[in-house]
Specification:
The protein is 33% helix and 30% strand. Strands 11, 12, 13, 16 and 17 form a 5-stranded antiparallel sheet that branches. Strands 1-8-3-6 form a 4-stranded antiparallel sheet. A 4-stranded antiparallel sheet has the order 2-7-4-5, with no helix packed on it. The chain folds into 2 domains: 4-131, Jelly Rolls (Sandwich), CATH 2.60.120.10; 133-316, Alpha-Beta Plaits (2-Layer Sandwich), CATH 3.30.70.1060. α3 crosses α4. With 316 residues, the protein is an alpha+beta fold. Mean pLDDT is 76; it is low at 165-185. A hairpin with a 5-residue loop joins β9 and β10 (158-160).
Length: 316
Amino acid sequence: MLAKEDLALLDQAKAVRHYEAGETIFQQGEPCSGVFCIESGTVARRKTDAEGHSVLVQLAHPGQTLGYRDFFGGQGHTASAEALTPARVCHVEGAAMRQMLAHNPTLGLNFLAHLAEDLDNAEESILQNSSLSVRTRLVHLLLTLKDRFAGVTDDGTIVLSLPLARQDLAAGMKSEQVGGVAVMRLRLVVVFHPLLEPSGALADLERRQALDRWNAWVDTMAAQGKLRDGQPLKSGGRLVAGKRGERVTDGPFAEAKELVGGYFLLADTTLEEATAIARQCPLLPHGMTVEIRPVAAACNLATSIGWETRRGPATA
């Protein structure tokens, strides 16, 4: 329990903020300025490696604390935090935390108990990773989330309303871990179909302005860490067919509206996030269409024989 003077200090030092779903609370690598306490909502902690691959390491719920290990370690945030649902989060400044800990050793012991619990969960995660299949971990995840996000219909059917996109749980997406259980984030290919309105119909200034808007849009995606690759594609090329590749035809190979004019590869993105990005495409008003496709772990030929990857069945 906190003493009266500590409670007064806490009231002065804390800042409570409401976050919308998808909003970032803190970023990996930023200086840790204090401790975050979740009052309502669900928050995801994600770690990103040197290659830009993001891993979901924790789903945090009301009553849980974030950033305390970074704070006590005197380092920057080792992971990012994002609100998965509308969330209310209290931030306590580091100076106030140090002052309360100096006056109240019991508070420090409580944080040590919290740390021990986190270490136990990490060991359990390692055990499940090595002993359970991906499918079993997915089932375990759904059972874990059932108590918080499940409802029961009039006929007794249990319905899960998850803060994760439905596509996040589908095959063909990058596997991540929450407490040793498989959770998914999307890798998406965004395909651009050429303008229905020929670019030659635009004045020089309009074309320059359109390119400036396009480049600003691309730069925003790159700054957010979503964009992994992207290139325009020429309409020409060759089509190879026949049992021995004997038929070679010069392109293009489709109607203009079906041609692929270019692509982006997005990572660590939900379908909803990618849709929001696509809606900001500055060439939509000129007739461009944008197609969003998940990257699959296996082709149709592999899935037709029961393989979950192109190399074979998934392993534990």
